[in-house]
Design goal:
17 helices; Aspartate Aminotransferase, domain 1; alpha/beta; 3-stranded antiparallel β-sheet; 15 strands; about 500 residues; 8-stranded mixed β-sheet; Arc Repressor Mutant, subunit A; Aspartate Aminotransferase, domain 2
Protein backbone atom coordinates (compact mmCIF):
# COMPACT_ATOMS: atom_id res chain seq x y z
CA UNK A 1 0.00 0.00 0.00
CA UNK A 2 1.32 3.42 -0.95
CA UNK A 3 2.19 5.84 1.84
CA UNK A 4 -0.14 8.84 2.10
CA UNK A 5 1.15 12.14 0.72
CA UNK A 6 3.04 14.38 3.10
CA UNK A 7 1.41 17.57 4.40
CA UNK A 8 3.35 20.54 3.04
CA UNK A 9 3.26 23.36 5.55
CA UNK A 10 5.82 26.18 5.24
CA UNK A 11 5.30 27.07 1.56
CA UNK A 12 4.40 30.65 0.79
CA UNK A 13 3.98 32.07 -2.71
CA UNK A 14 4.10 35.83 -3.24
CA UNK A 15 2.07 37.05 -6.27
CA UNK A 16 3.85 40.44 -6.04
CA UNK A 17 7.30 38.93 -6.42
CA UNK A 18 9.22 39.34 -9.69
CA UNK A 19 9.85 35.58 -9.68
CA UNK A 20 7.08 33.53 -11.31
CA UNK A 21 4.92 31.51 -8.95
CA UNK A 22 6.08 28.19 -10.38
CA UNK A 23 9.71 29.25 -9.81
CA UNK A 24 9.00 30.18 -6.20
CA UNK A 25 7.43 26.78 -5.63
CA UNK A 26 10.32 25.06 -7.41
CA UNK A 27 12.90 26.85 -5.23
CA UNK A 28 11.10 26.06 -1.97
CA UNK A 29 10.62 22.39 -2.78
CA UNK A 30 14.22 22.07 -3.97
CA UNK A 31 15.62 23.56 -0.76
CA UNK A 32 13.33 21.37 1.34
CA UNK A 33 14.71 18.29 -0.43
CA UNK A 34 18.33 19.37 -0.08
CA UNK A 35 18.19 20.19 3.62
CA UNK A 36 16.35 16.97 4.45
CA UNK A 37 12.94 18.39 5.35
CA UNK A 38 11.56 16.33 2.48
CA UNK A 39 13.47 13.03 2.70
CA UNK A 40 13.92 10.60 -0.16
CA UNK A 41 10.89 8.49 -0.97
CA UNK A 42 8.34 10.81 0.59
CA UNK A 43 5.22 11.24 -1.51
CA UNK A 44 4.05 14.75 -2.48
CA UNK A 45 0.42 15.84 -2.75
CA UNK A 46 -1.16 15.68 -6.19
CA UNK A 47 -0.93 18.78 -8.37
CA UNK A 48 -4.69 19.29 -8.03
CA UNK A 49 -4.59 19.07 -4.20
CA UNK A 50 -1.56 21.34 -3.89
CA UNK A 51 -3.04 23.91 -6.26
CA UNK A 52 -6.13 24.10 -4.07
CA UNK A 53 -4.07 24.40 -0.86
CA UNK A 54 -1.88 27.21 -2.29
CA UNK A 55 -4.75 28.94 -4.11
CA UNK A 56 -2.96 28.91 -7.47
CA UNK A 57 -3.67 27.41 -10.85
CA UNK A 58 -2.86 23.75 -11.39
CA UNK A 59 -0.53 24.66 -14.28
CA UNK A 60 1.73 26.45 -11.77
CA UNK A 61 2.13 23.22 -9.76
CA UNK A 62 2.64 21.10 -12.89
CA UNK A 63 5.37 23.44 -14.18
CA UNK A 64 7.28 23.30 -10.89
CA UNK A 65 6.93 19.51 -10.63
CA UNK A 66 8.09 19.02 -14.23
CA UNK A 67 11.24 21.08 -13.66
CA UNK A 68 12.05 19.08 -10.51
CA UNK A 69 11.42 15.83 -12.39
CA UNK A 70 13.74 16.83 -15.24
CA UNK A 71 16.53 17.78 -12.83
CA UNK A 72 16.22 14.55 -10.83
CA UNK A 73 14.79 15.88 -7.59
CA UNK A 74 11.48 14.08 -8.05
CA UNK A 75 10.35 10.89 -9.71
CA UNK A 76 6.90 9.88 -10.88
CA UNK A 77 5.69 6.32 -10.64
CA UNK A 78 2.47 4.97 -12.09
CA UNK A 79 0.02 4.42 -9.30
CA UNK A 80 2.40 5.84 -6.69
CA UNK A 81 2.19 9.53 -7.49
CA UNK A 82 5.12 11.95 -7.37
CA UNK A 83 7.79 11.45 -4.72
CA UNK A 84 11.25 12.66 -3.79
CA UNK A 85 13.89 10.79 -5.78
CA UNK A 86 15.62 7.93 -4.01
CA UNK A 87 18.98 8.91 -5.50
CA UNK A 88 19.73 12.60 -5.97
CA UNK A 89 22.24 13.76 -8.59
CA UNK A 90 25.79 13.93 -7.18
CA UNK A 91 26.02 17.62 -8.01
CA UNK A 92 23.17 18.32 -5.62
CA UNK A 93 25.04 16.89 -2.65
CA UNK A 94 27.40 19.87 -2.63
CA UNK A 95 24.65 22.38 -1.93
CA UNK A 96 21.83 22.81 0.56
CA UNK A 97 21.95 20.42 3.51
CA UNK A 98 25.33 18.94 2.54
CA UNK A 99 27.11 22.25 2.17
CA UNK A 100 29.61 23.50 4.71
CA UNK A 101 28.05 25.82 7.22
CA UNK A 102 29.23 29.43 7.29
CA UNK A 103 32.16 29.94 9.61
CA UNK A 104 30.22 32.41 11.71
CA UNK A 105 27.45 29.92 12.57
CA UNK A 106 27.56 28.87 16.24
CA UNK A 107 29.03 25.46 17.01
CA UNK A 108 27.13 22.86 19.06
CA UNK A 109 29.39 23.74 21.99
CA UNK A 110 28.44 27.42 21.67
CA UNK A 111 24.75 26.52 21.68
CA UNK A 112 25.13 24.23 24.70
CA UNK A 113 26.79 27.06 26.56
CA UNK A 114 23.39 28.74 26.57
CA UNK A 115 21.89 26.06 28.81
CA UNK A 116 20.76 27.04 32.27
CA UNK A 117 22.83 25.94 35.23
CA UNK A 118 20.22 23.31 36.13
CA UNK A 119 20.21 22.15 32.51
CA UNK A 120 23.95 21.52 32.66
CA UNK A 121 23.56 19.70 35.96
CA UNK A 122 20.84 17.50 34.50
CA UNK A 123 23.09 16.64 31.55
CA UNK A 124 25.63 15.35 34.05
CA UNK A 125 23.23 12.67 35.27
CA UNK A 126 24.02 9.54 33.29
CA UNK A 127 21.05 7.39 32.38
CA UNK A 128 21.44 3.70 31.72
CA UNK A 129 20.85 2.56 28.10
CA UNK A 130 17.90 0.30 27.40
CA UNK A 131 19.86 -2.89 26.78
CA UNK A 132 17.49 -3.89 23.98
CA UNK A 133 18.69 -5.54 20.79
CA UNK A 134 16.22 -6.29 18.03
CA UNK A 135 13.31 -6.15 20.45
CA UNK A 136 14.85 -8.51 23.00
CA UNK A 137 16.25 -7.56 26.41
CA UNK A 138 19.95 -8.24 26.82
CA UNK A 139 21.12 -9.88 30.02
CA UNK A 140 21.40 -8.27 32.54
CA UNK A 141 19.63 -4.95 31.92
CA UNK A 142 17.85 -3.90 35.09
CA UNK A 143 14.45 -2.27 35.51
CA UNK A 144 12.75 -4.23 32.73
CA UNK A 145 9.82 -6.56 33.40
CA UNK A 146 9.18 -9.73 31.41
CA UNK A 147 7.26 -7.90 28.72
CA UNK A 148 6.60 -11.05 26.70
CA UNK A 149 4.63 -12.43 29.65
CA UNK A 150 2.16 -9.56 29.74
CA UNK A 151 -1.40 -10.50 28.63
CA UNK A 152 -1.46 -8.24 25.59
CA UNK A 153 -4.52 -10.02 24.22
CA UNK A 154 -6.54 -8.94 27.25
CA UNK A 155 -5.02 -5.46 27.16
CA UNK A 156 -5.83 -5.02 23.45
CA UNK A 157 -9.41 -6.07 24.07
CA UNK A 158 -9.81 -3.55 26.88
CA UNK A 159 -8.29 -0.76 24.78
CA UNK A 160 -10.53 -1.63 21.85
CA UNK A 161 -13.59 -1.68 24.07
CA UNK A 162 -12.77 1.74 25.46
CA UNK A 163 -12.08 3.02 21.96
CA UNK A 164 -15.52 1.91 20.77
CA UNK A 165 -17.33 3.33 23.78
CA UNK A 166 -17.11 6.96 22.73
CA UNK A 167 -17.81 9.11 25.76
CA UNK A 168 -17.37 12.85 25.86
CA UNK A 169 -15.43 12.85 29.11
CA UNK A 170 -12.68 10.76 27.48
CA UNK A 171 -12.10 13.30 24.73
CA UNK A 172 -12.48 16.69 26.39
CA UNK A 173 -10.32 18.46 28.99
CA UNK A 174 -10.98 15.89 31.67
CA UNK A 175 -10.12 16.06 35.36
CA UNK A 176 -6.39 16.74 35.50
CA UNK A 177 -5.76 14.65 38.61
CA UNK A 178 -6.85 11.47 36.84
CA UNK A 179 -9.73 9.26 35.73
CA UNK A 180 -11.90 8.70 38.79
CA UNK A 181 -12.48 4.92 38.41
CA UNK A 182 -8.70 4.41 38.10
CA UNK A 183 -8.07 6.44 41.24
CA UNK A 184 -10.76 4.38 43.02
CA UNK A 185 -9.12 1.13 41.89
CA UNK A 186 -5.64 2.26 42.92
CA UNK A 187 -6.84 3.45 46.33
CA UNK A 188 -8.35 0.01 47.00
CA UNK A 189 -5.25 -1.80 45.77
CA UNK A 190 -2.75 0.35 47.69
CA UNK A 191 -4.73 0.12 50.91
CA UNK A 192 -4.89 -3.69 50.78
CA UNK A 193 -1.44 -4.43 49.34
CA UNK A 194 0.76 -1.67 50.74
CA UNK A 195 -1.01 -0.30 53.78
CA UNK A 196 -1.43 3.12 52.19
CA UNK A 197 -4.13 5.16 53.88
CA UNK A 198 -5.81 7.43 51.35
CA UNK A 199 -8.98 8.53 49.65
CA UNK A 200 -9.19 8.26 45.83
CA UNK A 201 -9.04 12.06 45.49
CA UNK A 202 -5.57 12.03 47.07
CA UNK A 203 -4.21 10.10 44.08
CA UNK A 204 -2.68 12.15 41.24
CA UNK A 205 -2.17 10.18 38.01
CA UNK A 206 0.99 11.14 36.08
CA UNK A 207 2.69 10.14 32.85
CA UNK A 208 5.12 7.81 34.58
CA UNK A 209 7.40 7.87 37.62
CA UNK A 210 9.71 10.52 36.20
CA UNK A 211 6.81 12.89 35.68
CA UNK A 212 5.76 12.27 39.29
CA UNK A 213 9.27 13.11 40.48
CA UNK A 214 9.36 16.25 38.37
CA UNK A 215 5.96 17.39 39.62
CA UNK A 216 6.90 16.85 43.27
CA UNK A 217 10.22 18.65 42.80
CA UNK A 218 8.52 21.65 41.15
CA UNK A 219 5.98 22.02 43.95
CA UNK A 220 8.03 21.24 47.03
CA UNK A 221 11.57 22.46 46.34
CA UNK A 222 12.93 25.97 45.74
CA UNK A 223 16.39 26.64 44.25
CA UNK A 224 19.06 26.04 46.89
CA UNK A 225 16.82 24.01 49.21
CA UNK A 226 18.64 21.06 50.82
CA UNK A 227 17.27 17.69 49.68
CA UNK A 228 18.40 14.46 51.30
CA UNK A 229 18.96 11.83 48.64
CA UNK A 230 20.04 8.24 49.14
CA UNK A 231 23.66 7.48 48.32
CA UNK A 232 23.82 5.33 46.27
CA UNK A 233 20.49 6.26 44.77
CA UNK A 234 18.19 6.50 41.78
CA UNK A 235 19.56 8.68 38.98
CA UNK A 236 16.09 9.72 37.83
CA UNK A 237 15.42 11.31 41.21
CA UNK A 238 18.80 13.00 41.16
CA UNK A 239 17.99 14.48 37.75
CA UNK A 240 14.57 15.75 38.88
CA UNK A 241 16.04 17.54 41.89
CA UNK A 242 18.90 18.95 39.82
CA UNK A 243 16.18 20.28 37.53
CA UNK A 244 14.65 22.05 40.53
CA UNK A 245 18.10 23.54 41.38
CA UNK A 246 18.03 21.84 44.77
CA UNK A 247 21.13 21.42 46.93
CA UNK A 248 21.50 17.63 46.90
CA UNK A 249 22.74 16.14 50.17
CA UNK A 250 23.98 12.53 49.78
CA UNK A 251 23.02 10.38 52.78
CA UNK A 252 24.60 6.92 53.01
CA UNK A 253 22.70 3.63 53.21
CA UNK A 254 23.30 0.72 55.56
CA UNK A 255 21.43 -2.56 56.12
CA UNK A 256 18.55 -0.72 57.81
CA UNK A 257 18.24 1.94 55.13
CA UNK A 258 18.88 5.68 55.24
CA UNK A 259 21.37 6.76 57.94
CA UNK A 260 19.33 9.57 59.45
CA UNK A 261 22.02 10.66 61.90
CA UNK A 262 24.44 11.32 59.04
CA UNK A 263 21.78 13.29 57.18
CA UNK A 264 21.14 15.51 60.19
CA UNK A 265 24.86 16.27 60.50
CA UNK A 266 25.14 17.20 56.82
CA UNK A 267 21.89 19.18 56.53
CA UNK A 268 19.87 19.49 59.76
CA UNK A 269 16.89 21.18 58.10
CA UNK A 270 16.11 19.38 54.83
CA UNK A 271 13.25 20.63 52.69
CA UNK A 272 12.61 17.16 51.26
CA UNK A 273 13.83 13.61 51.91
CA UNK A 274 13.75 11.14 49.01
CA UNK A 275 13.75 7.45 49.99
CA UNK A 276 13.06 3.98 48.56
CA UNK A 277 12.38 2.22 51.88
CA UNK A 278 10.71 -1.00 50.71
CA UNK A 279 13.57 -2.05 48.42
CA UNK A 280 16.35 0.49 48.34
CA UNK A 281 17.59 1.35 44.88
CA UNK A 282 20.16 0.02 44.11
CA UNK A 283 21.45 -1.83 47.23
CA UNK A 284 18.24 -3.76 47.89
CA UNK A 285 18.16 -2.88 51.61
CA UNK A 286 14.79 -2.75 53.36
CA UNK A 287 14.36 0.09 55.85
CA UNK A 288 13.68 -1.31 59.32
CA UNK A 289 10.54 -0.33 61.21
CA UNK A 290 12.71 1.42 63.80
CA UNK A 291 14.39 3.51 61.10
CA UNK A 292 11.03 4.25 59.45
CA UNK A 293 9.57 5.64 62.65
CA UNK A 294 12.72 7.68 63.25
CA UNK A 295 12.50 9.12 59.73
CA UNK A 296 8.87 10.12 60.22
CA UNK A 297 9.75 11.82 63.49
CA UNK A 298 12.63 13.65 61.79
CA UNK A 299 10.28 14.95 59.10
CA UNK A 300 7.79 16.07 61.72
CA UNK A 301 10.44 17.89 63.77
CA UNK A 302 12.19 19.56 60.81
CA UNK A 303 9.10 20.25 58.68
CA UNK A 304 10.57 18.23 55.80
CA UNK A 305 8.53 16.45 53.16
CA UNK A 306 9.21 12.75 52.59
CA UNK A 307 8.92 11.47 49.02
CA UNK A 308 8.50 7.70 49.30
CA UNK A 309 9.30 5.92 46.03
CA UNK A 310 7.73 2.45 46.14
CA UNK A 311 8.85 1.42 42.67
CA UNK A 312 8.73 -2.41 42.85
CA UNK A 313 7.22 -3.42 46.18
CA UNK A 314 5.00 -6.00 44.43
CA UNK A 315 7.96 -8.34 44.07
CA UNK A 316 8.90 -9.69 47.49
CA UNK A 317 9.60 -13.41 47.62
CA UNK A 318 10.07 -14.17 51.31
CA UNK A 319 7.88 -12.93 54.17
CA UNK A 320 5.52 -9.99 54.16
CA UNK A 321 6.64 -6.48 53.16
CA UNK A 322 6.71 -3.80 55.81
CA UNK A 323 3.87 -1.28 55.49
CA UNK A 324 4.48 1.86 53.46
CA UNK A 325 5.84 4.88 55.27
CA UNK A 326 2.75 6.79 54.21
CA UNK A 327 0.52 4.45 56.19
CA UNK A 328 2.55 5.06 59.35
CA UNK A 329 2.63 8.84 58.95
CA UNK A 330 0.15 10.65 61.19
CA UNK A 331 1.63 14.10 60.56
CA UNK A 332 0.82 14.25 56.84
CA UNK A 333 4.43 14.80 55.72
CA UNK A 334 4.73 11.84 53.28
CA UNK A 335 4.01 11.80 49.55
CA UNK A 336 3.79 8.23 48.24
CA UNK A 337 4.90 7.53 44.68
CA UNK A 338 4.39 4.47 42.48
CA UNK A 339 4.62 3.34 38.89
CA UNK A 340 2.91 0.73 36.74
CA UNK A 341 5.84 0.47 34.33
CA UNK A 342 7.51 -2.29 36.36
CA UNK A 343 4.30 -4.24 36.89
CA UNK A 344 2.88 -3.96 33.37
CA UNK A 345 5.29 -2.70 30.69
CA UNK A 346 7.43 0.48 30.42
CA UNK A 347 5.56 2.02 27.49
CA UNK A 348 2.33 2.27 29.49
CA UNK A 349 3.79 5.48 31.01
CA UNK A 350 1.44 5.64 33.99
CA UNK A 351 2.60 6.64 37.45
CA UNK A 352 0.91 8.18 40.45
CA UNK A 353 1.37 10.19 43.61
CA UNK A 354 -0.61 9.89 46.83
CA UNK A 355 -0.51 13.33 48.39
CA UNK A 356 -1.72 14.61 51.77
CA UNK A 357 -5.17 16.15 51.56
CA UNK A 358 -3.76 19.65 52.01
CA UNK A 359 -1.76 19.20 48.77
CA UNK A 360 -4.58 17.93 46.52
CA UNK A 361 -5.42 21.34 45.08
CA UNK A 362 -1.85 22.55 44.37
CA UNK A 363 -0.89 19.23 42.75
CA UNK A 364 -4.05 19.21 40.64
CA UNK A 365 -3.39 22.75 39.43
CA UNK A 366 0.29 22.00 38.78
CA UNK A 367 -0.32 18.87 36.73
CA UNK A 368 -2.75 20.78 34.55
CA UNK A 369 -0.20 23.56 34.00
CA UNK A 370 2.70 21.21 33.27
CA UNK A 371 0.66 19.03 30.90
CA UNK A 372 1.83 15.75 32.46
CA UNK A 373 -1.62 14.19 32.06
CA UNK A 374 -2.02 10.61 30.87
CA UNK A 375 -4.65 9.99 28.13
CA UNK A 376 -8.06 9.36 29.68
CA UNK A 377 -8.96 6.37 27.48
CA UNK A 378 -5.68 4.68 28.53
CA UNK A 379 -6.50 5.33 32.18
CA UNK A 380 -9.98 3.90 31.59
CA UNK A 381 -8.58 0.68 30.11
CA UNK A 382 -6.16 0.39 33.02
CA UNK A 383 -9.00 0.81 35.51
CA UNK A 384 -10.77 -2.08 33.78
CA UNK A 385 -7.58 -4.15 33.87
CA UNK A 386 -7.39 -3.72 37.65
CA UNK A 387 -11.06 -4.07 38.58
CA UNK A 388 -11.62 -7.15 36.38
CA UNK A 389 -8.83 -9.01 38.21
CA UNK A 390 -6.20 -9.13 35.44
CA UNK A 391 -3.82 -6.93 37.44
CA UNK A 392 -3.71 -9.20 40.49
CA UNK A 393 -3.41 -12.32 38.35
CA UNK A 394 -0.46 -10.87 36.42
CA UNK A 395 1.37 -9.78 39.59
CA UNK A 396 1.05 -13.23 41.16
CA UNK A 397 2.31 -14.87 37.96
CA UNK A 398 5.28 -12.53 37.68
CA UNK A 399 6.18 -12.89 41.36
CA UNK A 400 6.59 -16.63 40.84
CA UNK A 401 8.53 -16.18 37.60
CA UNK A 402 10.91 -13.54 38.97
CA UNK A 403 11.62 -15.53 42.12
CA UNK A 404 12.66 -18.48 39.95
CA UNK A 405 14.81 -16.32 37.67
CA UNK A 406 16.45 -14.67 40.68
CA UNK A 407 17.44 -18.05 42.06
CA UNK A 408 18.69 -19.16 38.63
CA UNK A 409 20.99 -16.13 38.50
CA UNK A 410 22.31 -16.63 42.03
CA UNK A 411 22.99 -20.32 41.38
CA UNK A 412 24.72 -19.60 38.07
CA UNK A 413 26.96 -16.87 39.53
CA UNK A 414 27.92 -19.16 42.41
CA UNK A 415 28.61 -22.06 40.05
CA UNK A 416 30.71 -20.22 37.48
CA UNK A 417 32.12 -17.51 39.74
CA UNK A 418 33.25 -19.96 42.41
CA UNK A 419 32.67 -17.54 45.23
CA UNK A 420 34.29 -14.51 43.61
CA UNK A 421 30.94 -12.72 43.20
CA UNK A 422 28.92 -12.19 46.37
CA UNK A 423 25.25 -11.20 46.59
CA UNK A 424 23.66 -9.50 49.62
CA UNK A 425 20.75 -11.27 51.28
CA UNK A 426 17.81 -9.48 49.72
CA UNK A 427 14.52 -11.19 48.99
CA UNK A 428 12.80 -8.70 46.71
CA UNK A 429 12.93 -6.83 43.44
CA UNK A 430 13.78 -7.46 39.80
CA UNK A 431 17.55 -7.10 40.08
CA UNK A 432 20.43 -7.66 42.48
CA UNK A 433 23.93 -6.37 43.15
CA UNK A 434 26.90 -8.70 42.68
CA UNK A 435 29.91 -7.48 44.67
CA UNK A 436 33.33 -7.97 43.11
CA UNK A 437 36.66 -9.36 44.36
CA UNK A 438 39.32 -7.00 45.70
CA UNK A 439 41.21 -5.18 42.98
CA UNK A 440 38.44 -5.39 40.35
CA UNK A 441 36.95 -2.09 39.22
CA UNK A 442 33.24 -2.31 38.46
CA UNK A 443 33.39 0.18 35.59
CA UNK A 444 36.18 -1.74 33.87
CA UNK A 445 34.35 -5.03 34.41
CA UNK A 446 31.17 -3.56 32.92
CA UNK A 447 33.16 -2.61 29.81
CA UNK A 448 34.65 -6.10 29.60
CA UNK A 449 31.19 -7.66 30.06
CA UNK A 450 29.85 -5.55 27.20
CA UNK A 451 32.49 -7.08 24.95
CA UNK A 452 31.01 -10.44 25.92
CA UNK A 453 27.50 -9.17 25.07
CA UNK A 454 26.42 -8.85 28.69
CA UNK A 455 24.84 -5.58 29.81
CA UNK A 456 25.61 -4.61 33.41
CA UNK A 457 25.56 -1.38 35.40
CA UNK A 458 28.45 -0.42 37.71
CA UNK A 459 27.11 0.25 41.20
CA UNK A 460 29.68 3.00 41.70
CA UNK A 461 27.90 5.20 39.14
CA UNK A 462 24.95 5.55 41.52
CA UNK A 463 27.01 7.30 44.20
CA UNK A 464 26.87 11.07 44.39
CA UNK A 465 29.90 11.84 46.52
CA UNK A 466 32.62 10.62 48.83
CA UNK A 467 35.70 8.44 48.31
CA UNK A 468 35.60 5.12 46.51
CA UNK A 469 35.25 2.08 48.75
CA UNK A 470 35.15 -1.68 48.31
CA UNK A 471 31.37 -1.69 48.88
CA UNK A 472 30.93 0.39 45.75
CA UNK A 473 32.60 -2.14 43.49
CA UNK A 474 29.62 -4.16 42.34
CA UNK A 475 27.55 -4.80 39.25
CA UNK A 476 23.81 -4.25 39.17
CA UNK A 477 22.17 -7.19 37.38
CA UNK A 478 18.56 -7.37 36.22
CA UNK A 479 17.02 -10.81 35.76
CA UNK A 480 13.27 -10.21 35.34
CA UNK A 481 13.36 -9.76 31.55
CA UNK A 482 15.96 -12.46 30.84
CA UNK A 483 14.79 -15.86 29.59
CA UNK A 484 15.46 -18.82 31.87
CA UNK A 485 17.71 -20.48 29.30
CA UNK A 486 19.75 -17.31 28.80
CA UNK A 487 20.52 -16.60 32.47
CA UNK A 488 23.15 -19.37 32.96
CA UNK A 489 24.80 -18.64 29.59
CA UNK A 490 25.00 -14.92 30.30
CA UNK A 491 26.36 -15.58 33.79
CA UNK A 492 29.08 -17.72 32.26
CA UNK A 493 30.00 -14.92 29.84
CA UNK A 494 30.09 -12.43 32.73
CA UNK A 495 32.52 -14.63 34.62
CA UNK A 496 34.64 -14.91 31.47
CA UNK A 497 34.85 -11.11 31.46
CA UNK A 498 35.87 -11.22 35.13
CA UNK A 499 38.62 -13.70 34.23
CA UNK A 500 40.05 -11.18 31.78
CA UNK A 501 40.63 -8.66 34.59
CA UNK A 502 41.71 -11.10 37.32
Amino acid sequence: MNAPPVLLGPISLDPKSEAPLYRQLYDQLRHAILDGRLPTGVRLPSSRTLAKELSVGRNTIVAAFEQLLVEGYLEARTGAGTQVAALLPESLLEVGGGAAKPADNPSPEDLLAGLSDRGRRMMGVQRVPTGYEKGQARAFQHGLPAIEQFPFGVWSRLLARRGRAVQGRHYDYHVAAGYEPLRDALATYLGAARGVVCKPEQIIITTGAQAALDLAARLLVDPGDPVWIEDPGYLGARGAFFGASADLVPVPIDREGLQIDVGLKRAPAPKLIYVTPSHQFPTGATMSIKRRLALLETAKQTGAWILEDDYDSEYRYVGRPLPALQGLDHAGRTIYMGTLAKVLFPAVRIGYLVVPEALIEPFTIAIRLTGQIAPAFLQAALADFITEGHFGTHIRKMRTLYAARRQLLIDALEKYGQGRLTMPETEAGMQLAAHLPDGIDDIELAKAAARHKVHTTPLSTYYLGGPSTKDRNALYLGYAAVADTEIPRAAQRLVAALDELS
